[in-house]
Description:
Layout: H1 11-36, H2 44-68, H3 75-104, H4 107-126, H5 131-149, H6 153-178
Transmembrane segments: 20-37, 43-63, 75-100, 153-178
Keywords: Membrane, Transmembrane, Transmembrane helix
InterPro entries: DUF4199
Amino acid sequence: MEVFEQKPVNLRSEAIKDGLIMAVFSLIIFLATNYLMPDMLGSGLISGISLAVGVALAVFFCIDMRKKAGGYWTFSEALLHIFIMFLLSAGIVYVFTILFGKYIDTTYPVRMKEIIAEKTSEMLSKLGLDESKVEEMKETQKAKMEEQFNPSFFQAIVGFGIQAIFYAIGALIFAAIFKKTPPLFKAPEGE
């Protein structure tokens, strides 16, 4: 009987490939929403769909990478490769959305600012705040949105750094779920 050995897989390249695929899916959802359903921009439904697709892809890719690693990987191996996958995907989407708003569709930041300002006003008025407080909070929100949609280099680095922290926490959670250490002793063959 001939035994086929499994060739070792470069998990780093797998993580990079999977991160690129995750970014493509995120960008497809972003562009489809922006051009096909512009009224849905900033909606909870689209955010929920994006989150569900992202989590489903992450689960699929984590299981796939573990399988390609031979069925087992330690917590640190899982953490490293999952974080690479998450960070690459997030970085591509982050840079793309900034460049998209600056160079491809300059109306995107304006529309998003209007949507966010409208939703903020609705939320604040539901809370029963007086009009002067609502206006003050709207002005603060406007300044934050300007930084978000037209960041300086330093603001972009800080913004992405904050995102990276959240993705690191997500990678910790996924690594804890998908780690699988090999058994200490192998069962005798034939049993």
